[in-house]
Amino acid sequence: MVDYKLMGSVPNSDISDFYRNERVDCFITTSSTEGGAPVSVAEAISAGIPVIATDVGGLPEMVQDNGILLSSDPSADQVADAIVHMATLDKATTDSMRRASRNIWEDRFDATRNAVRFTGYLGSFFGERAGVLNSNLRIILITDGYPYGGEQSFIEPELREILKSYDVDIICLTDDERYKANKDLAELYISRLKSDQPDDLHSLSVTRADSAWHLHKCLQYFVKYYKDKSISAERRSIIHSGNKVLLRLWESMKRYASAEVFFKDTLKNVLENIDPTNTIIYTYWHRDPTLAACLHRHEYNGIKIITREHGYDLYDERTGKSNRQPFREVMDPLLDGIIFACETGLKYYIHRNHIKAPEDKYHIFYLGSADSGMYTATESVNDDVFRIVSCSNMVPLKRIDLIIQSLKLASERLPDKKIEWIHFGDGELMADIEVLAGKELGRNVPEENDR
Description:
CATH superfamily of the largest domain: Glycogen Phosphorylase B
Helix content: 40-55%
């Protein structure tokens, strides 16, 4: 029997508190794909927790001698074998894995240290002006959610460091519903960031851009798509591929129209009164806003454009039926830098696009997590329990159902071992996961035993 607790969505700080106050024997993730190195795993290894993970995305860079790296598509039997192996290790081996997890985090996935490194990279574009007081250097940060929902754990560590040297204009793409639901929370995030800069040397502003699709705004750009000579490489690439041509032309045309609407309605206004030679546009996802900046960079002599690639904006197979990321041939030569969250992402991009550009254009800057702090209690309640944690959105690609099936098998193979599973996160599959867990695992941890 497996005792389990589905914790739902909780702040990252609560997860770190849990790791500090409870002995966790193993962290598990069975994702079918990852764009980078997951923050959830970074939080776990920060706390010195051994890991079971699938061989996807940046996970091989996080799981070495600190756990078990499964195949990219393991069976429930294989995952169960890994759980049994971890649950029956001697203390010396487990302690060695804990130290290895912490060492990997300190070396690669300390978010504060990584933010300092990344800010130094931004400074390389400004040369001697970087770090000079009152130099009016500016970063235009374009996000897909922050501060109106999502991306907080990714963006804020970088943003705190960037604000020490640069003025920042955030442009957030969000729809009306998310904007209204998170407006107060966004104001709290921004006020907290400003208070972290006691000298108030650099400004921070937020502009909201409507992320909804408006056909009437896009119609004029559908015609322009076929007349714009600057994107002829995009059209040629689709036609010459001979694969899903009509679908890919339609997806490409929509991307182009969305980018032009974003430029006209939002980006152009933000750029109106800036000095382009003092400005970097930094898009947090390589999508419509990146294309908008690239298509119009000739209007702003001296401006720099960099972007981050994560997952759904990187891999062709994450784009739905078209199986193609649009405009790579157009944007690549117009970008000053492309940032990847893991080595796997960088290798995929170069191979997929047959890149011949200079190597110093592409960089890996890990995101990571804050310091969870290693579990330090000398004694713990229910010390004979094997406690395993997972943390993710409840969406199909995370394969939480596989974790449940594997835990059932592991408990059958270890009938005398008490196993406890805690999952942080919710999502579209929450109700299905609750039903499956109730059917396969036995019992939910009673409320009075909540930690």
